Prior knowledge:
heterodimer; A: globular
Amino acid sequence: xxxxxxxxxxxxxxxxxxxxxxxxxxxxxxxxxxxxxxxxxxxxxxxxxxxxxxxxxxxxxxxxxxxxxxxxxxxxxxxxxxxxxxxxxxxxxxxxxxxxxxxxxxxxxxxxxxxxxxxxxxxxxxxxxxxxxxxxxxxxxxxxxxxxxxxxxxxxxxxxxxx
Amino acid sequence: xxxxxxxxxxxxxxxxxxxxxxxxxxxxxxxxxxxxxxxxxxxxxxxxxxxxxxxxxxxxxxxxxxxxxxxxxxxxxxxxxxxxxxxxxxxxxxxxxxxx
Lengths: 163, 100
């Protein structure tokens, strides 16, 4: 019962803030709503008993991405004034496409006999996760480090000061 | 107890909202925000499947997906800053550098 209540409140927060992200006229407000949506997702992860992922979500997404997006807005627009306002185009076509896609996916989900109960946790999930990353998935994990280094160098190179 | 279907449906709805943002936003940064929403919805799916199947592999995949998303956001925003420096605009309609 408590889980159902938590799920529905999180779902309302998540869907509401996601709608605000795409509909808000002010780009800066969009980013703040995105922070709320990402925090709501961390709540969903907590409901799924993935505490470590909820922490990663808050640190990397809600902390990191929101900070760099705000930074990009500050660089490319003035924070106050009407230039920050953004408009949308082809709203009807976009809405029809999205609603059609969601209807298709939800229809497919409803037709599948999906699990309704979770298997009980046998061990500490964070511990299992850490062991798995550093044993079975150690090669992708190291490659990920290379990828992030490359992305960081690329970002620094692109955004370097003009000479 | 909420079933797997509820989580998958929630993720599908968030994904659709993100798609709407990508399709309709004029500002490049707004488009990037829509992409973040879509990637975020995929992570909900991965974690839900992992939890309901009793295997941690999906959660490992989520960690990878989050790291790749952060790299993507950093690169995307660096490109936005670069575009703004060249064209003085971040509106997608005015960015037609690749048009012959």
